[in-house]
Specification:
This protein is mainly α. The radius of gyration is 16 Å and the shape is globular. The chain is built from 7 helices and 2 strands, in the order αααααβααβ.
């Protein structure tokens, strides 16, 4: 059982209602940018955690099975991590604590396969980092093994 499965098993009916509400808010934002109307957000609460977990898994496996993973895909995953922080702020304390336990484990996995280079690698591709405006720790870390196609 992975971190997200453990989280889902611990959710109360009220937690699930809060997540559904946050997902509905996200769906409205996403649909406002689309020509079609989706019924489920791409970046719902649990989906964001899954994206972060998938990234850590790819890095743990040294990107095996992927013939390319462009730096801009990686940057997107980092913005997904930004979104997790934003949604945490909107949660009531009890749910936030449960999600934080899951996120802390995912972050440990990410940290184990990256190293802090002060953002030097990503600053080539991400202007806020190059200009010193981006300081969140996950942005200043470089994968130990760069993926194919980077």
């Amino acid at each position: 059982m992975d971190e997200i499965d453990r989280l889902v098993r611990r959710l109360t009916p009220e937690d699930r209602r809060v997540i559904a509400f946050l997902d509905l808010q996200r769906l409205q934002v996403e649909n406002a940018r689309r020509k079609f109307q989706a019924t489920k957000p791409t970046y719902g609460v649990l989906d964001r955690l899954r994206f972060w977990s998938i990234l850590a898994g790819h890095m743990e496996d040294d990107w095996q099975g992927l013939d390319h993973y462009m730096v801009y895909e990686y940057l997107n995953d980092l913005t997904v991590r930004d979104g997790i922080e934003e949604v945490l702020d909107a949660m009531p304390p009890g749910l936030r604590a449960k999600v934080r336990v899951c996120l802390d484990e995912l972050d440990r996995r990410y940290q184990a396969v990256t190293h802090d280079d002060g953002g030097a690698e990503l600053a080539q591709y991400w202007r806020p980092l190059a200009e010193g405006e981006e300081t969140r720790w996950w942005w200043t870390r470089r994968p130990d093994v760069l993926p194919p196609g980077w």
